[in-house]
């Protein structure tokens, strides 16, 4: 089984909430019909509007949704029916084959098929700095930063998707897509976000430690961060 992530953009003529509702209501059955084994949808919808202050934008235009699919094979001719279903529900899309690492599983608020997961999911698109080769970049991120990110933030799920290769023409050049889930209060309370509710000193320590670690493998202005609602559409192996 392979994992494919689609970045989705809505058509300019479609309202954001209409786009979100269409994806939630129409995709599940059609994806199952073309053999998808599992599907997760991350949407910028009304529920995450309070988290607008967390957004960071590099990609132009910014994507509106992320669709994560688990399929038997990403080989082009086998994947085409899936691409067709996804394309029919978006103004445009970009698909990537990824490897998935899950250093922190969501045991606190386990996703339920067809429902919105508690809190919110922060989707981050990463680009490797030219100052680091691939091996050094992965080593810093996976073997050093991962532990710091989990220790200094209130995350209850952390998923690292490293790009293997783009699957669609003209897909933006990116190197990874990260999903981090936070409690609802972290949308607007940075002390909650950095695992320091009501504690100024701990907040400052965690923030400084996190920013120092991020700077080792991400250059300023090269990251996209979008707060989303996470919807586990289905997982047929549950």
Instruction: Describe the strand arrangement of the main beta sheet, using strand numbers.
Output: 1-3-2-9-6-8-7-4
Q: What class, by secondary structure content? A: alpha+beta
The CATH class is identified as Alpha Beta
- Number of domains in the coordinates? 1
Condensed summary:
With 238 residues, the chain is α+β, with helices and mostly antiparallel strands. It has five helices and nine strands, in the order E-H-E-E-H-E-E-E-H-E-E-H-H-E. Helix 3 (134-152) runs antiparallel to helix 5 (200-217).
What would you note in describing this structure?
The protein is an alpha+beta fold and 238 residues long. It has 5 helices and 9 strands. Strands 1-3-2-9-6-8-7-4 form an 8-stranded antiparallel barrel. Helix 3 runs antiparallel to helix 5. The longest helix is centred in the middle third of the chain and has 19 residues.
Jot down its keywords.
238 residues; Alpha-Beta Plaits; eight-stranded antiparallel β-barrel
Topology of this protein?
Layout: E1 2-9, H1 16-33, E2 38-43, E3 65-71, H2 76-87, E4 92-104, E5 115-116, E6 120-126, H3 134-152, E7 157-166, E8 176-182, H4 190-193, H5 200-217, E9 224-235
Antiparallel strand pairs: 1-3, 1-4, 2-3, 2-9, 4-7, 5-9, 6-8, 6-9, 7-8
Helix pairs in contact: 3-5
